[in-house]
Amino acid sequence: MDIKENLSKIKSTLPEGVRLIAVSKFHPAETVKEAYDAGQRIFAESRVQELAAKQPALPGDIEWHFIGTLQTNKVRHIAPFISMIQSVDSIKLLREINRQAENCGRTIRLLIEVHIAGEDTKHGFSTGECRALFAGDVFKQFACIQVCGLMGMATFTGDTEQIRREFGTLRTLFNEIKSMPFTGHPLFTELSMGMSDDYRTAIGEGSTMVRIGTGIFGVRQY
Ligand SMILES: *Cc1c(COP(=O)(O)O)cnc(C)c1O
How far does the centroid of ligand 1 lie from the alpha carbon of residue 212, in Å? Predict the structure, then answer.
């Protein structure tokens, strides 16, 4: 795998305003460093233990994003350094992130994960629950978090039209919420959607952040 070449190929296809998040889960720190040396600065991980081990072994100017299932009792391990938690799927988790951010004396940026796929295996609020969350302005009670946008994953399928519809649903919801008055509203700007196999479709539907692992680092060894 030529990581540098993969990165530059992908980056050359991204329109202005779309950021590349390199998903480094299951790849060792040395591999992450290769991407770092090629200029990549934003990385994402999906397991707390793995991230907590890698973070101190790598340069301090890396912006780490969390994209996996996050148990409330593990938030404290990443709270001191995490740049963005993209996979917030419950109010309980919001509350704990806020509490740990306060303990660290910082504001933690996050995205609300929305369930848009046809499969049950993916986490997130339903579109209705998400709308209600913002309409109720639950964020008012949490002073140490900044809600920056939405994240979603499309169904794992070869049906591009279905994927496009699912991303379209998320974009419509995102635009709807953007027009609502709620705490932190002016900083609600990010729509994280698109992975190695569907990021082109996601960009067509308005993604501002694509999360790419396999396309940069090759197939993961589990
Ligand atoms: C693993 C993962 C990715 C990256 O998937 P690839 O197909 O390897 O690009 C993106 N987003 C989330 C939430 C993931 O868990």
Answer: 6
